[in-house]
């Protein structure tokens, strides 16, 4: 019976992968029918597979496999709304993967699985979406994580700004690893793995609104191999990735969470000359600029040299530096020691310095 021409045609039809032929995303691509199937087959599965369990409404993960790597799960989620969607050094897809990987990594976890939710505005060029999803798949493979489930929605023109991406991530925390802001002590030092402010500067330059002739790429990168190397070599009390709000926001989070004070050495802050000049022209401060490939770590003072050695041995830590020292008083307050011998409170911004950064 299977040799009948009708059954052969049905079999070929069932096995045919969809293909998007339109130049822009339309409402039909979110309607649940053939157009949506074509978009998922041609753009999503083709670029984010092969681990994407697209034929199910959930990902199914073996617990025994996870438990072999550690004794706790780390789970995080974030949404990404950067403008422009593509910028020097990255794009919204790579940003979403690396951002979620880094949120897991700074908690001491080994990142394993991601979900991806896409909110696409009607009219987004299909070529743009294809490039972003391809970049997202490449970023996941580079980070050694699997994108296993997701969702796609198309909204009418004006209801979104081209493309919003939500990612959730699962990682495994190895036994014995305990990283928390509550573990920061008054005799700790704070290290950063490299140059500050690159992502925030790159985004503003990429918008082209200020006609600035600066070549500043984003620092968008996955930090999990760096965090694992650091955890294997020293007693890391706390880590945070430095994203929105910049260094100032992260240090204030750690100080408030631990109720210790911190004094930052302004001279020790690693900032590339292009970013420093960019900030001086616009009246910005590098400590408030966003980053997407930077972390801070709190370690005991007597292990600072070893921690610095580990960071600088990694490609993402060649410009690592000790930037602050913790102290008992005043608790929860971060200050900045200037190069002129003065000291001022380093607080978080009240509003936003730059919109649509990540």
- If you compute it from the alpha carbons, what radius of gyration comes out, rounded to the nearest whole angstrom? 23 Å
**Main beta-sheet strand count, sense and barrel state:** 7 strands, mixed
How many strands appear in the DSSP assignment?
Answer: 13
Number of helices: 10
Mean pLDDT across all amino acids = 91
User: Given the helix and strand composition, which structural class is it?
Assistant: alpha+beta
What is the level-2 CATH architecture name of the largest domain?
A: Alpha-Beta Complex
Helix content: 25-40%
Calculate the terminal CA-CA distance, rounded to whole Å: 56 Å
Encode the helix/strand succession as letters: HHHEEEHEHEEEHHEHEHEHEEE
Provide structural commentary:
By secondary structure, this protein is an alpha+beta fold. 32% of the residues lie in helices and 22% in strands. It has 2 domains: 20-173, 2-Layer Sandwich (60s Ribosomal Protein L30, Chain: A); 181-345, Phosphoribosyl-aminoimidazole Synthetase, Chain A, domain 2. The chain has 10 helices and 13 strands. The strands form 3 sheets. It has a 7-stranded mixed beta sheet with strand order 8-10-7-11-9-12-13. Strands 1-6-4-5 form a 4-stranded mixed beta sheet, with helices on one face. β4 (110-121), α5 and β5 form a beta-alpha-beta unit. The mean pLDDT is 91.
């Amino acid at each position: 019976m299977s040799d009948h021409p009708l059954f052969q045609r049905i079999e070929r039809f069932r096995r045919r992968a969809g293909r998007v032929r339109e130049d822009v995303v339309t409402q039909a691509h979110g309607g649940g029918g053939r157009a949506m199937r074509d978009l998922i087959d041609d753009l999503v599965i083709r670029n984010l597979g092969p681990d994407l369990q697209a034929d199910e409404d959930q990902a199914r993960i073996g617990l025994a496999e996870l438990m072999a790597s550690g004794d706790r799960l780390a789970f995080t989620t974030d949404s990404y709304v950067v403008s422009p969607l593509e910028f020097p050094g990255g794009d919204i897809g790579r940003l979403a993967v690396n951002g979620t990987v880094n949120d897991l990594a700074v908690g001491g976890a080994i990142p394993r699985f991601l979900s991806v939710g896409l909110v696409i505005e009607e009219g987004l060029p299909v070529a743009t979406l294809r490039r972003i999803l391809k970049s997202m798949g490449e970023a996941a493979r580079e980070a050694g994580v699997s994108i296993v489930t997701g969702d796609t929605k198309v909204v009418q023109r004006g209801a979104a700004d081209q493309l919003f991406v939500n990612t959730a991530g699962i990682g495994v925390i190895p036994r014995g690893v305990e990283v928390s802001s509550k573990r920061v002590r008054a005799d700790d030092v704070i290290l950063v793995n490299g140059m500050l402010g690159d992502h925030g500067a790159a985004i503003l330059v990429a918008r082209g609104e200020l006609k600035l002739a600066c070549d500043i790429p984003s620092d968008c990168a996955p930090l999990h191999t760096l965090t694992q190397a650091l955890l294997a070599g020293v007693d890391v009390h706390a880590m945070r990735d430095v994203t929105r709000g910049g260094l100032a926001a992260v240090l204030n989070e750690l100080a408030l969470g631990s109720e210790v004070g911190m004094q930052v050495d302004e001279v020790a802050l690693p900032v590339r000359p292009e970013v420093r000049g960019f900030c001086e022209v616009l009246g910005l401060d590098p400590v408030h600029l966003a980053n997407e490939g930077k972390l801070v770590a709190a370690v005991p003072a007597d292990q600072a040299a070893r921690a610095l050695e580990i960071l600088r041995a990694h490609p993402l830590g060649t410009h690592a530096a000790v930037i602050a020292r913790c102290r008992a008083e005043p608790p929860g307050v971060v200050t900045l020691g200037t190069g002129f011998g003065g000291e001022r409170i380093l607080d978080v911004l009240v509003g936003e310095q730059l919109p649509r950064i990540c």
